[in-house]
Amino acid sequence: MHQENLSMKMSKQMPLNALRVFEAVARLNSFTKAGEELGMTQTAVSYQIKLLEENIGEPLFLRRPRQITLTDTGGRLAPKVSQGFTILADALASARDDLNQMLHIDSTATFAQQWLTRYLGAFQLKHPNIAVRLTTSPIIIDFLRDQADVAIRWGKGDWPGLSAHRIMRLDFTPMLSPKLAQSIGGIHEPADLLKLSIISATDPWWKQWFAAAGVENPGLERYLANELGTQSFDAGMAIAGQGVAILNPQHFQDEVETGRLYQPFELTCNDGRDYWLVYPENRRHVSKIRAFRNWILSEFPRVDG
């Protein structure tokens, strides 16, 4: 009898159905869309929200014609409810002990091309039960909306709600084709680079590097203001002899060793942003995420600030 009373008390205190409906409405910003996703009528959705508001004692949404917005109370509650359902989903997945898992990695394009695709095979040999889906995007993904498990991003590692592990310094320095360097008799001092075409001249890395190299007025504004979007594209132009690119030398060691790229100066700079492995803090114990985290951190030496 005591156990039955305790269960009834917990059920009343924890209205899971209403919380699930609230999570959907808050995420989709619509009673109608939430109902469609959950297979409920709009009336049923409104009823569940009303029950939850009565349970809490505060309104969760401001209802206006054709528009709803979260109240302050609703805004504070929504991310915690979403986090709670994520934890429950992960717990169920772990309980099922699914032998075949899919790890979704979202990465910057350059890191994916220059590192991940070259070494992911080693991860899968170590974890043959984990399939990998790799996508690339130039923006910081929203783990609440996107399906990725982990991401490789560049920045300062200060993303709220995410666990972040720095994996590679994002230093930069000019690099070019050896043949292009020979075409002007070699690169002997930093100013010699300005005799050639500068790829992505509007990239702020150029000004920082030339300042560090003692070239105060490089006149970068005279070059075409191209923006190619990724280091891989800049490097491709440099390898083809079309100019000088400013790149992270760690990404292009193979190209240097095979003579396709040349780093004329040892001077490298860093603007405080590096490569990080990130994932939601509340998913740090998920087995596939833990396996990938341990593997990739073992592949890189300790990165000091």
Provide a quick synopsis of the model:
The chain has about 300 residues and is α/β, with parallel strands linked by helices. It is about 45% helix and about 15% strand. It has three domains: about 1-95, Winged helix-like DNA-binding domain superfamily/Winged helix DNA-binding domain (Arc Repressor Mutant, subunit A); about 100-170 and about 275-300, 3-Layer(aba) Sandwich (D-Maltodextrin-Binding Protein, domain 2), CATH 3.40.190; about 175-255, D-Maltodextrin-Binding Protein, domain 2 (3-Layer(aba) Sandwich).
Note down, in words, how this protein is organized.
It is a single chain. The protein has helices at residues 2-13, 16-28, 31-38, 42-56, 72-96, 109-126, 178-182, 204-212, 231-239, 253-257, 287-299; strands spanning 61-64, 67-70, 101-107, 130-136, 150-155, 162-168, 173-175, 245-247, 274-280. The chain folds into 3 domains: 2-95, Orthogonal Bundle (Arc Repressor Mutant, subunit A), CATH 1.10.10.10; 100-170 and 273-299, Periplasmic binding protein-like II (D-Maltodextrin-Binding Protein, domain 2, 3-Layer(aba) Sandwich); 173-257, D-Maltodextrin-Binding Protein, domain 2 (3-Layer(aba) Sandwich), CATH 3.40.190.10. The N and C termini lie far apart (59 Å). The model is unreliable at 1-11 (pLDDT under 50). α6 links the parallel β3 (101-107) and β4. The protein has a 5-stranded mixed β-sheet. A two-stranded antiparallel ribbon has the order 1-2. Strands 7-8 form a two-stranded antiparallel ribbon. α2 (16-28) crosses α4 and α3 (31-38) crosses α4. With 305 residues, the protein is an alpha/beta fold. The protein is built from 11 helices and 9 strands. It is elongated, with a radius of gyration of 26 Å.
